[in-house]
Amino acid sequence: MEAAEVRIQYQDGELIQTRGDQTHGLRVIRSGTVRVGNIGVDGEHLTLAILGPGQTFGEMTLFGNLPRTFDARAYGPTTIGHIDKPHIDALLRAHPELAEVFLRSLSTQLHAALEYIEDLRRLPLIVQLAKLLSTMIKTEKAVEDLEMTQANLAIMVGVNRVSVGHALAELEGAGLIRRGYGRIEIPDVPSLRAWVAKNSLLTPVSRDRGLEPETKAERRLDPLARLREYAASLEREVVAEPDVERG
């Protein structure tokens, strides 16, 4: 497939595609990072996902004859391999086994979408946010700095900024993140991923006896022990507090 690519280098913030674009083709991230999302009615760019090297986008334009559904911009210096539909069609005719590659890619995207829906229905907000932040990490560094606002996170999980602010404050209190203006630092990536894995498991919970958290931080963050209390407190605070973002 690389022989059919046209590789283009993009600078930080440069537009790769726009929502509604009718050009049909596959985009392969060869290096760098791509931020995908859309512009809201207020003119603010709302991030839906952050993609890294080896990931692709544009499959729906190839096999569904659909327009592009989101904007894509380079997040730092980025190289994209562009393969147009005629080349993809020719490749599939010459190498039918490539169809399995595309099916695997589409299946992975569908799996991620279904898992996202399941997370929205099952996980407390604090775990959703921690899991979302962990999926945005595209490097193997122990410390990660993500350019992300509370407004973006609120859109991605479908709640308001006040609720996101409370959940982020709890994660920060446990030492899993540090908040800055328009940024979130992950001071210990392995610890965040371990916490997400521990709190995302589909394990049965006894109504008669729960597991006691091992530390004070875990006691404060245990979603199984605090879910009802946390949801009730958020309902009261959302009514009482204005929807403003921490600077």
Describe the structure concisely for a colleague.
The protein is 44% helix and 21% strand.
List the helices and strands and how they pair.
Layout: E1 6-10, E2 15-17, E3 25-31, E4 34-39, E5 45-51, E6 56-57, H1 59-63, E7 71-74, E8 78-84, H2 85-94, H3 98-122, H4 125-135, E9 144-147, H5 150-157, H6 161-173, E10 178-180, E11 183-186, H7 189-200, H8 216-221, H9 223-240
Antiparallel strand pairs: 1-8, 2-7, 3-6, 3-8, 4-5, 4-7, 9-11, 10-11
Provide an overview of this structure.
The protein has 247 residues and is of the alpha+beta class. 44% of the residues lie in helices and 21% in strands. It has a four-stranded antiparallel β-sheet with strand order 1-8-3-6. It is globular and about 55 Å long.
Largest sheet: 4 strands, antiparallel
Could you tell me the strand content as a percent range? 15-25%
CATH class of the largest domain: Mainly Alpha
Question: What is the strand tally?
Answer: 11
Order of helices and strands: EEEEEEHEEHHHEHHEEHHH
Distance between the termini: 45 Å
Taking all Cα atoms into account, the compactness measure Rg is 20 Å
The fold-level CATH name of the largest domain is: Arc Repressor Mutant, subunit A
Integer count of domains: 2
CATH superfamily of the largest domain: Winged helix-like DNA-binding domain superfamily/Winged helix DNA-binding domain
Task: Give helix % range.
Answer: 40-55%
Can you count the helices? Answer: 9
Which structural category do the helix and sheet elements fall into? alpha+beta
